[in-house]
């Protein structure tokens, strides 16, 4: 079963549970205020850690066990990923992560966690996105990965369609 774990059945979409995954720290250079304890969402440490725990349970049970690679979007920063991979549910899976801060004004990024025992990241690169109709608008990057799994190369581009829409 282990050798089949990169099949699409095991790369299930956890995006619905990962929407707007912010911590409770203010980043003055990003528009993350609605996820502070005193603002709209009343985002508290207790709610944050409950979300970390719940997401780690979902990841652990994707396809019956921890998947080799999980791509994510709308993650605020690497500290969330560190909290996530160090939960009791995921710690033994020996995950690491790839994350770059994007230029998105909301402070959200595309990233992935991967099991170091099963996958080697050979190349990684954030690809910046700019729109012809609005060069000032910023959004999440596309995360490019070149991976080695049992001497087979995988080329992966992680990106998600944003919920924002521009009209001409």
Written account of the structure:
The protein is flat, with a radius of gyration of 16 Å. Mean pLDDT is 76; it is low at 1-16. It is built from three helices and six strands, in the order ααβαβββββ. The protein has 168 residues and is an alpha+beta fold. It has one domain. It has helices at residues 15-18, 45-60, 78-85; strands at 69-75, 95-99, 109-115, 120-127, 142-149, 152-158.
Task: Note the topology.
Blueprint: H1 15-18, H2 45-60, E1 69-75, H3 78-85, E2 95-99, E3 109-115, E4 120-127, E5 142-149, E6 152-158
Antiparallel strand pairs: 1-3, 2-3, 4-5, 5-6
Structural class: alpha+beta
- Total number of distinct structural domains: 1
Number of distinct beta strands: 6
End-to-end separation? 49 Å
The residue-averaged pLDDT reads 76
What does the largest sheet look like?
Answer: 3 strands, antiparallel
Strand content: 25-35%
Quaternary state of this entry equals: single chain
Strand order of the largest sheet: 1-3-2
Structure described in brief:
Helix content is 17%, strand content 25%. It is of the alpha+beta class and 168 residues long. The strands form two sheets. It has a three-stranded antiparallel beta sheet, covered by helices on one side.
